Amino acid sequence: MPDWHPAIVSDTSPSADGLTDLVLDIQGTPLVGSHVHPGQYVRLRLPGQEEGLFALASPPEPGGTHWELLLKGGSPLPDALIRLRPGDRVEVSAPEGRGFPLERARGHDLLLFATGSGISPIRSVIRSIRRERDAYGRVTLYFGARTPSAFAYSDELHEWEAGGIRVVRTVSQPGASGWQGLTGYVQAHLGEEHLEDVVAFICGQAEMVQGVKTTLQARGVPTSVIYLNY
Hints:
Elements: E1 5-16, E2 19-25, E3 41-45, E4 52-55, E5 66-72, H1 76-82, E6 89-92, H2 102-105, E7 109-115, H3 119-130, E8 139-145, H4 157-162, E9 165-171, E10 182-183, E11 198-203, H5 206-218, E12 226-227
Parallel strand pairs: 7-8, 7-11, 8-9, 9-10, 11-12
Antiparallel strand pairs: 1-2, 1-6, 2-5, 3-4, 3-6
């Protein structure tokens, strides 16, 4: 059983259709400094609700006092968390999981794949990389969403691109939205990407993860350099 610690809600705000940003204040708890690898996740719980797992969207910071998470609405605990207001309290565990091995990507090209709320732990990776961008080769994010309005952190994408992160967005269900960009699955847009010296980090639904892995392996990328965050 995890040890539970109190955290205070600092802010909640819409991020995209069906997705909400949650910021927790953990100052004064043993949790400060416990987030050490991008891609790790924590457990949250509220009275009367089953606990749930949520990836940390903020990068590890030794003295950081705030954690950012991305909530996907549509189930009881996330919906209850979305209704919280600044000053409300939630119980949270220490980070779990191995996260993504940034040290394995140093000196190599890095491919990042995320769909939907799976961008949350990948955002933690991107924020970490930008602190020492020169330590990595080319970095490309393949980011998929169902509709054009379902891209979380859309207001940050231009910052990522300005910071040397190539962003490739694709929509699986454009409908009548007028979307003029790419459509289909993220792995369908690797194109002529140079894959001889790459490391890949993937986060999304199981079918997407398997599709990306299969495509990468078919292109000669060894399984040993394809990583999930758990």
